[in-house]
Amino acid sequence: MNIEMRKAAVDDIPGLDRVMQVISDGPGNREKMARLIENISGDANKYLLIAVNKNDGEIIGSLLGVVFEDICGECRPILLVENVAVLDKYQGQGVGRMMFDEIERWGRAMDCHYEMLVSGMNRPGAHKFYGRIGFAEVKGFKKYL
Question: What pTM did the predictor assign?
Answer without folding.
Answer: 0.93
